[in-house]
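Case study 2.
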Amino acid sequence: MDQNQYQTDAALSKRNAATSGPAAEETQEIDLLMLFNALKQHILIVIAVALVFALGAGIVVQFFITPQYEATSSTYIAASAGDSLLEITNIQLSSSIAPDYVDIIKSRSILTYIIDKMGLEYDYEEMYKKVEVTNPTDTHIIKITVTDPDPVLGSQICNTLTAYACDRIADIMDVSVPNNYDVAVVADEPSFPSLMKTVVIAFVLGAVVAAGVIIFIAVMDTTVKTAEDIENRCGMVTLTKVYYEGGKKKKHGYGYGYGYGYGYGSHGEQSSDGQKSDKSGGAKK
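Prediction:
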């Protein structure tokens, strides 16, 4: 009776300790370890899903997306009004004149002229989307970039547009002709999409998706598998293990509770009340 009372008191004290502050941290560590073990056990699935994503992205980029090539020219602003040269060293020149350059270059009259002159099959809206005009911060430089699926045609459009726009800007704004110091060249590689970048992103995305599904399944799994699961989820302490023999495999389960516990098993196993069981499962006194 004293031994049984001792087991009951030990179970209650251990259950009460499970609700204390340090035990909460221990439970969190066990949960993180459980998630890590779940990912470790299914690491091949994570890699396989990531490879499928990467392969699919590569196929889509290679066969279903039209690559786009960029051609860029650079023009330096040399502004003058009438016969007097402006202070082009003044940093305010760029902020006051550059936006006007950008609007004029992408105006309907200039882009329509380029379409007609080159015999392009684009309308104004399509041409407008292909042309990008930028002014790097704190500079007197205007960059014109044309994006087209044909790298040769894209470079030709960019150079033709730059030359015509510089002449028109000089007439419209009554300034000197901007200096086109860097002409567009034919691009060797597409600017979009990047095969390598797309494949890497798809691989990482696939791994994250697979890991997220595995973690979700592991978190939602409330089945009891170990003695620690009983203590963490139920606040109960495992008093003994009960072994079962059958067929070629040995199976085992767990018994738990607050009071008395008895276990019978294979030859030589000690039951919870201190009695020794014989080979047939009966208790020896």
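The radius of gyration is 38 Å.
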